[in-house]
Design brief:
By secondary structure, the chain is an all-beta fold. Helices cover 0% and strands 49% of the residues. A four-stranded antiparallel β-sheet has the order 4-3-6-7, with no helix packed on it.
Length: 104
């Protein structure tokens, strides 16, 4: 099991800046191991960010993403205490969902 996704959502006026750090190895499938064999591809394919249950960001990624990817977005109409949910699924079918609340 991977570590929890780190989510920080800070309110400024009616906008919340949401910063997300996902823990994932993100192998491209092009790197070779010590024996010269290709390391199989393993990467996050889809990321969804929800604000109070409504999808506000959906991204589809490929093998070129960096290890432990970072995403930032700004949400209009956010309020202190609102719930932010981040979900992802990788190409092996592993899934992770984490939540945070908007802070001031």
């Amino acid at each position: 099991m991977t570590e929890a996704t780190r989510i920080r959502a800070q309110l400024t006026g009616d906008k919340a800046t949401v910063r997300i750090l996902m823990t994932h190895e993100m192998e491209s499938g092009q790197r070779k191991d010590q024996l010269g064999k290709l390391v199989p591809a393993w990467f996050i394919q889809e990321v969804t960010v929800q604000h109070e249950g409504r999808a506000v960001l959906t991204a589809q990624w490929g093998p070129a993403m960096s290890r432990n990817p970072f995403v930032q977005c700004v949400l209009k109409g956010a309020r202190a205490g609102d719930r932010i949910t981040v979900s992802w699924v990788d190409n092996r079918g592993e899934r992770r969902t984490d939540e945070a609340t908007v802070g001031t």
